[in-house]
Design goal:
By secondary structure, this protein is α+β, with helices and mostly antiparallel strands. Helix content is 47%, strand content 14%. It is built from nine helices and six strands; from the N terminus they run H-H-H-H-H-E-E-H-E-E-H-E-E-H-H.
Length: 235
């Protein structure tokens, strides 16, 4: 006890933790304030640490988020679910497990790790990238219905769109120099139905963009079943 009173550091700790006078009406709830402070400090430290793993590049942003997910899992936290393990199927049956759909499709070669003739790794990235940047558009006129899938980026990222086009082998890349923008657009109905919809049915979207795709896909299927007369605009 004498050491607690004489040592400069221990004396300071003793005055706060042992000899500090406290009102008799304080209960254990008084400790929640310090516990919340500890939680806040942990959140700040972990948030800054995880943010250091993020890459703001358009081509690598999704991969860096996946890396952050792995950091969570490797540390035993497991807070972020993997979008590639568990499939999603809504009441309309639009979404399925990516593994099951790929195994059922005759175009898949497990030896080359391909799905729809495209490397799975690229399709995983494309699904996540479209979650952030993709748009599903339907234009209805008296004479035609126009389906479009569109990605808009800054002109400096045009190479990303060219890479997407070269892998999917559909669509076109357009440049709008006046606004420093470039676009990847798929508007051919067959390409929309057989390529774009097939990819997102297998490699599911995971944000609110999934709801946009549901409506888009339903309209495509209505046209495919010829429930209503439509003349489709083609590229």
């Amino acid at each position: 006890m004498r050491l607690l009173k004489s040592h400069p550091i221990l004396r300071l700790a003793n005055s706060f933790l042992v000899d500090s006078p406290q009102p008799v009406n304080l209960s254990y709830l008084w400790n929640f304030g310090s516990l919340l402070a500890i939680c806040l400090i942990i959140q700040i430290i972990t948030g800054v640490t995880l943010a250091m793993h993020y890459n703001p590049s358009v081509a690598e942003a999704f991969n860096s988020v996946e890396h952050i997910k792995d950091v969570f899992q490797y540390n035993g936290i497991g807070l972020l679910p993997s979008p590639y393990v568990s499939g999603h199927k809504n009441k309309k049956g639009f979404f399925h497990s990516s593994t099951d759909r790929c195994n059922e499709n005759s175009q898949v070669s497990t030896e080359q790790d391909l799905c729809y003739g495209v490397p799975k790794e690229f399709l995983y990235w494309f699904s996540g990238f479209s979650d952030a940047e993709g748009n599903f558009l339907i234009t209805i006129d008296r004479n035609y219905v126009r389906f479009r899938f569109k990605i808009c980026l800054h002109i400096d990222d045009m190479e990303v769109l060219n890479t997407i086009k070269s892998h999917l082998k559909v669509g076109r890349v357009e440049l709008e120099s006046s606004r420093n923008r470039c676009f990847f657009i798929v508007s051919d109905y067959d390409a929309i139905k057989n390529v774009i919809c097939s990819i997102f049915n297998t490699f599911s979207l995971h944000t609110s963009k999934r709801l946009d795709f549901e409506n888009f896909y339903e309209a495509v299927m209505i046209k495919n079943k010829k429930k209503i007369p439509m003349r489709i605009w083609k590229e």
